[in-house]
Amino acid sequence: MKLGFGSSAEKNGVPRIERITPSAAIPGGEITVYGSGFTSRPGARPVVRFGEAEAPLSLTGSNRLIARVPENASGGTIQIANAQSESQPFPVSIGFQIADNLHPVASPAVDAHGNIYVTFSGPRGQRVPVSLYKITANYSVKPYVTSLINPSGLAVDVKGDLFVSCRHDGTIHRVTPDGQSEQWIEGMGIATGLAFDRAGNLFVGDRSGTIFKISPSREIFVFATLEPSVAAYHLAFHPGGELYVTGPTTSSYDRVYRITQGGEVIVFYRGLGRPQGIAFDRESNLYVVASFGGRRGIVKITPQGHAEHVLSGSALVGLSLLPTGRAILASNSALFTLDWNVRGLPLLG
Q1: Which of 8, 212, 215, 238 has the fewest C-beta atoms lying within 10 Å of its C-beta?
Q2: Which of 190, 217, 216, 140 is nearest to 204 (CA)?
Q3: Total domain count for the chain?
Q4: Residue 310 falls inside a structural domain
Q5: Could you give the CA distance from residue 163 to residue 113 in angstroms, rounded to a whole number?
Q6: Residue 46's domain is classified under what CATH number?
Q7: Secondary structure class of 9 (helix, strand, coil)
Q8: 228 and 111, same structural domain?
Q9: How many CB atoms lie within 10 A of CB 18?
Q10: Along the chain (349 residues), what's the average pLDDT of each consecutive run of 10 residues?
Q11: 282 burial class (0-12, 13-18, 19+ CB within 10 angstroms)?
Q12: The model's pTM
């Protein structure tokens, strides 16, 4: 039987979850739970479980608590138990880890077959044993490319070739589906973010302040100039064809830029902390890895500029939204996937 406000169950000390925010997280992220009857007496601490895993609590009260998602979280529900009873399960989306011992600095790339590409970027100027990994659709992790120094941005073209920027020397490399790598272009400054438009032009974010446009025939144009970033530029195309860019600065009130097809730079949104990876859904909502209101994770920004914290995760750097209804999330050392209830996810490419 469903219990409502003021029910006899509530009066008898049965905890009741009314809502949680945000509704999704990866392990380590914090979720705020609102409801009633969480504690059976003053000073008592309830038990919060994600699936079967008990969560640490950073704030407790009878009507609100903050729980951190444990590393061994399982299932898609959260429950609260006090000394007398426990709540009904409440739905929550929790990401599970599919790869670790990585070093992404931007969003992963996913090809049309569901293969995921992610970097091990490594210390500045140092070559690492494997610089790029391929993770198959069944989450088998395989070394893919070994020859790149400080790989940063990733993008897949319509042919299925992977393009990789290297911030160490300002080069862009093309990697064929069989893992063969070749230098495709040079002179891109501190090359970071990559994105293809519908015409096959590749856009490159030089974090020192330039967005380059490279035609399929490798003609190079300066498309726009921005404030330099202390870390990297992250690029994504709006379904309507305009380019959006983030690039963290020393400010705690950073911007998301919208760049028209003619190269005019407009501030789309301001008020994020260290904005990084970005992606759009088909309804033109923008998802940004950033801090918002002091909470780290993923922020959804509507076309009208309304922002909301929708996923919690303290070490995230990038994301990819898939047409299957799943999201691939990159932290600074691992990849996660989750079934995220976002309507109208974007097509790849």
Answers
A1: 8
A2: 190
A3: 2
A4: yes
A5: 16
A6: 2.60.40.10
A7: helix
A8: yes
A9: 11
A10: 42 86 96 94 89 95 96 91 94 95 97 96 94 96 95 97 97 95 97 98 98 98 97 97 96 96 98 97 94 96 97 96 91 92 43
A11: middle
A12: 0.93
